Amino acid sequence: MARLKNIEELKKIRTEAQKDLLIRTQTGTRIIIGMGTCGIAAGAREVMQAILKELDARKIDAHVETVGCVGMCAKEPLVDIEQAGKSRIRYANITPENVPRLIDEHLLKGNVIQDWAIGRLDARKIQ
Amino acid sequence: MRELSLHILDLLENAVEAGASRIEITIEEDLKTDWMVIEITDNGRGMSQELIERVLDPFYTTRKTRHVGLGLPLFLEAARRCGGDLLIQSNLGKGTRVRATFRHSHIDRAPLGDITGALMAILLSEHPVDLDYCHNVGSGVFRFDSSEIRKELENVPLGHPKVRDWLFHVLHEGEANLVDEREGRPLTL
């Protein structure tokens, strides 16, 4: 029963999503979370859950991605935010409590939170 | 680690790093025999016999970014502490299977915890990977295979915000039913 209902929902989502796929890839926002052993032990999964919850609550469409260890284990959980046309900012030692401010200041107001940021990276080319 | 699902997430990350495109995860909680078995099988690049012996050593890692690898040693320690063990089988070029056993009622056994979050973290990985997940509690079953969902989605990625919310909901519901339905109404997706 649950399965059929869920599959029907999924089909509906697919049809809707296919319409905005192109727009999304051109104007997209990516949030990248380190999920190596170091990130996991430091609470990266909880940070990811907090980010998903915050995006959902504020109805923000952003792509969330997890990556392996990048070698800055002492700075985990690491969260990178990349908005189309801007450079990618890396934030260190992020906790679930930091997430609402991170989304509000950086994503919505466009200000880099200097106290938490540890680096600026070149934006990856969006295909 | 505080939850078994964090160890599972860690092993799933290993599999992704080993280039796996498909990972099978089985969690069996047999309340009658009092065993909990967690098995993770991937189709990544596999390991040689020599490497299998070394991965349980905390001072060994394949990564270049630092010099210790704690994932498997920590999981082994957690299993042994609970009267269980950890076994690794691997074939070069074919994949790896890790099987960890725990006494279900052992006082030191960490709870499974947020397995939904662990699975989501891998489904949102930058490397697309499919998960075939099966969780048994007594006679209750929750099965989830992301490849079936990918097929249904055609060109829409699993990370699409709407799909992401749907996945979260389905996993959460499946796990919640499993806990409630100890009697065992099979739930499959």
Question: Overview of this structure, please?
Answer:
The complex is a heterodimer of chains A (about 130) and B (about 190). Chain A is α+β, with helices and mostly antiparallel strands. In chain A, about 45% of the residues lie in helices and about 20% in strands. Chain A has four helices and five strands; from the N terminus they run H-E-H-H-E-E-E-H-E. Chain A has a five-stranded mixed beta sheet with strand order 2-1-3-4-5. In chain A, a hairpin with a 4-residue loop joins strand 3 and strand 4 (about 90). The longest helix of chain A is centred in the first third of the chain and has 26 residues, at about 1-25. A seven-stranded mixed beta sheet of chain B has the order 3-4-2-1-5-6-7. In chain B, helix 1 (about 5-15) runs antiparallel to helix 3 (about 70-80) and helix 1 packs parallel to helix 4. The longest helix of chain B is centred in the C-terminal third of the chain and has 20 residues, at about 160-180. Chain B is globular, with a radius of gyration of 17 Å. The two termini of chain B are about 30 Å apart. The chains are: A alpha+beta (about 130), B alpha/beta (about 190). The interface of A and B includes residues 10, 17, 35, 40 and 69 of A.
Task: Output the CATH topology of chain B.
Answer: Heat Shock Protein 90
Mean pLDDT of chain B: 88
Q: Quickly give the CATH architecture of chain A.
A: 3-Layer(aba) Sandwich
* Largest inter-chain contact set: A-B, 41 and 43 residues
- β-sheet strand percentage of chain B: 25-35%
Question: Helices and strands of chain B, in N-to-C order?
Answer: HEEHHEEHEEHHE
Shape of chain B: globular
